[in-house]
């Protein structure tokens, strides 16, 4: 790493960025003296463009990892206009500056580690992760792989983390270098009411957002407008709705993940009109509009989280305070900014301060299998996880045939990474696919098992003044009225009944979501769960090959005759038998041996089944939980049961 900067290194074509002039020598010295440096500065300071140029002009090859390929291509094209240095977006082509996606850099590191055991890391002097506070899964893996190689050999590229907020990590010691910037006033405004985050009832938020855009454009407010929406589909939908307003003097641009380089570059073309950019979270890190005067933030995003079974979900959630601040900081660099947050101030105050990195909210077996597939020992890389968690997942993957006796990933293991299910349920689906029968019924049932979080069944809250006995009676009447028609001999059978009755009454899964929401409300079924199930079903169908069969109601008994034994084998370590003294309690058996005396109660509220009346010999607990009491004793529940 060369810390010196030649006097001619200042890009003469950059006339409006001067911050790096004051800081570049100190930044280069800091990078040179520390394995890992975090440069913290707000948007518009040139940290994604000017900083890499200065580092390269000091004689250092630099590779910059950005959010996706489209952004890499766009930055490559732009930086080529600023410098005579060689700039590329292909890491296999020698260049002084290289922009690539985080995924491409991760895969390049995999190849080096797999083929040369970390001895090919001379492709760069500085490895820069742009917007390193986003916490993406690929970003975490890049840092873990860098540390893995740093521990294997003495020479690795200096790691430069560039971010708008300080990167919090326990992976290594980080030297923080902060660029203080003078910004124009940023005024934050909130709404007088809150909006539901689910799809049903969200139309009012969109309508109010359109009104705000229209009224703002026809007001005295100056500057371009940036609207943060929730995902690509909503960005495209709102774009079309805004075009339908037929406002004069505006240029409208949708910006979202996966956008092409030419489309992204259009927003920077000279225009005398007001720009209105409708974007998803990609704009948090990629767009700097010098004439930006207004931000409208819908305050929701899709973030990964784990289901109770370990499956991967992307529910719509409110963003964090840190993310909201990051969005507001896209403006204020060149002129005053007015930032509208489409929630109330009281709700904003309740938001989480920040988000855990995605690697902690992604299926750990997916990450372990990705490393194994690339010939890397997951125990040596995933040191951020508790070793017991790694051991549990490795043992389970071995027992279920996901990895073989030589530690290599099998075909069933590769399949398990294609679907958004927990490990056990993905294996159940794989095994069922080997049977010559339509897949749709089992896709539905496995998706319902995998989507269990909050109960599918909604009970009324206890009203003030009701005694315990009166409330208990109300719950029993509620269950009898709403849930008895669905009751099966186990929870899995009940799920099948819920789906079949719903499909028969609404007319199939392709009806408007409002029809399904109305049915759920009428039958006291939690719509959010059903919406998640349908998302998982569609995701599975998009990622597998095979005879799906018709998407309609199906025969529960016939389906369970085939699926039941598969689930029983996969969940054989969660086998329970009834205690002769109490029909409500079952005792843990595990792999054929009486357990340690723990008694599990059938969850009679979150689950609906006839187990307590029929007292079968064996119950499989597909989902169990532990409830700690104030009296020092724990209660163990089976919330999703299977009876053969």
Would you mind describing this structure in some detail?
This protein is α/β, with parallel strands linked by helices and 644 residues long. The chain has 4 domains: 7-178, P-loop containing nucleotide triphosphate hydrolases (Rossmann fold), CATH 3.40.50; 186-358, P-loop containing nucleotide triphosphate hydrolases (Rossmann fold, 3-Layer(aba) Sandwich); 363-403, no CATH class; 418-644, no CATH class. The strands form 5 sheets. The chain has a 7-stranded parallel sheet with strand order 3-4-2-5-6-1-7, sandwiched between helices. A hairpin with a 5-residue loop joins β14 (305-306) and β15 (312-313). The chain is globular and about 80 Å long. The model is unreliable at 5-17 and 591-595 (pLDDT under 50).
Distance between the termini: 66 Å
The structure class reads: alpha/beta
Count of distinct strands: 22
| Biggest beta-sheet profile | 7 strands, parallel
The 3D shape can be described as globular
Q: Indicate the radius of gyration in whole angstroms.
A: 28 Å
Question: What's the average pLDDT?
Answer: 87
Number of helices: 23
Low-confidence stretches: 5-17, 591-595
> What percentage of residues falls in helices of 4 or more residues?
25-40%
Number of structural units classed as domains: 4
- Proportion of strand residues: 15-25%
What spatial order of strands do you see in the largest sheet?
3-4-2-5-6-1-7
Give structural attributes.
644 residues, alpha/beta, Rossmann fold, 4 domains, 7-stranded parallel sheet, 6-stranded parallel sheet, 23 helices, 22 strands, 39% helix, globular
């Amino acid at each position: 790493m060369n810390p010196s900067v030649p006097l001619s290194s200042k890009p003469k074509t950059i006339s409006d960025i001067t911050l790096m002039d004051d800081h570049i020598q100190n930044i280069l010295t800091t990078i040179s003296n520390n394995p890992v440096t975090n440069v913290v500065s707000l948007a518009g300071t040139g940290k994604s463009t000017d900083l890499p140029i200065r580092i390269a002009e000091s004689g250092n090859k630099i590779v910059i990892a950005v959010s996706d390929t489209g952004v890499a291509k766009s930055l490559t094209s732009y930086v080529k206009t600023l410098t005579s240095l060689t700039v590329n977006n292909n890491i296999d082509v020698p260049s002084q500056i290289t922009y690539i996606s985080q995924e491409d850099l991760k895969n390049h590191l995999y190849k080096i580690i797999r083929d040369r055991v970390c001895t090919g890391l001379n492709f760069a002097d500085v490895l820069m992760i742009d917007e390193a506070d986003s916490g993406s899964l690929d970003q975490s893996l890049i840092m873990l792989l860098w540390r893995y190689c740093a521990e294997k050999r003495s020479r690795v590229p200096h790691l430069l983390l560039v971010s708008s907020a300080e990167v919090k990590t326990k992976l290594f010691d980080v030297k923080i270098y902060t660029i203080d910037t003078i910004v124009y006033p940023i005024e934050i405004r909130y709404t007088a009411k809150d909006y539901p985050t689910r799809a049903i009832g969200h139309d009012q938020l969109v309508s109010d957002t359109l009104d705000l855009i229209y009224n703002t454009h026809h007001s005295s407010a100056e500057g371009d407008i940036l609207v943060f929406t929730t995902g690509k589909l909503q960005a495209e939908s709102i774009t079309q709705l805004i075009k339908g307003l037929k406002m004069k003097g505006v240029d409208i641009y949708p910006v979202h993940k996966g956008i092409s380089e030419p489309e992204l570059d259009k927003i920077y073309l000279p225009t005398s009109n007001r720009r209105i950019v409708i974007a998803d979270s990609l704009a948090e890190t990629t767009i700097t509009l010098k004439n930006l005067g207004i931000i409208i933030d819908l305050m929701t995003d899709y973030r990964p989280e784990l289901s109770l079974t370990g499956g991967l979900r992307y529910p719509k959630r409110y963003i964090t305070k840190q993310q909201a601040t990051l969005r507001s900081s896209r403006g204020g660099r060149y002129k005053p900014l007015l930032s509208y947050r489409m929630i109330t101030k009281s709700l904003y105050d309740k938001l989480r301060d920040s988000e855990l990195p995605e690697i902690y909210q992604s299926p750990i077996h997916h990450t372990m299998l990705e490393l194994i597939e690339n010939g890397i020992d997951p125990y040596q890389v995933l040191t951020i996880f508790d070793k017991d968690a790694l051991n549990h997942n490795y043992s389970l993957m071995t027992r279920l045939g996901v990895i073989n006796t030589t530690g290599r990933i099998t075909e069933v293991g590769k399949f398990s990474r294609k679907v958004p299910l927990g490990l056990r349920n993905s294996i159940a689906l794989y095994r069922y696919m080997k049977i010559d029968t339509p897949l749709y019924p089992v896709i539905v049932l496995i998706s319902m098992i995998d989507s269990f979080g909050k109960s599918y069944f909604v009970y009324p809250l206890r009203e003030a003044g009701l005694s315990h006995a009166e409330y208990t009676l109300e719950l029993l009447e509620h269950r009898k009225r709403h849930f008895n028609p669905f009751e099966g001999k186990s929870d899995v059978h009940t799920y099948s009944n819920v789906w079949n009755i719903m499909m028969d009454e609404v007319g199939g899964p392709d009806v408007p979501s409002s029809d399904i929401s109305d049915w759920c409300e009428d039958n006291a079924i939690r719509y959010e769960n059903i919406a998640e199930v349908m998302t998982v079903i569609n995701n599975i169908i998009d990622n597998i090959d095979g005879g799906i069969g018709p998407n309609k109601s199906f025969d529960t008994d016939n389906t369970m005759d085939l699926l039941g034994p598969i689930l029983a084998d996969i969940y054989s370590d969660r086998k329970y038998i009834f205690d002769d003294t109490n029909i409500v309690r079952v005792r843990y058996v595990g792999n054929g041996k009486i357990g340690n005396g723990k008694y599990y109660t059938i969850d009679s509220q979150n689950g609906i089944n006839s187990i307590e009346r029929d007292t079968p010999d064996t119950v499989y607990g597909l989902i169990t939980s532990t409830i700690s009491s104030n009296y020092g004793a724990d209660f163990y529940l089976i919330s999703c049961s299977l009876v053969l």
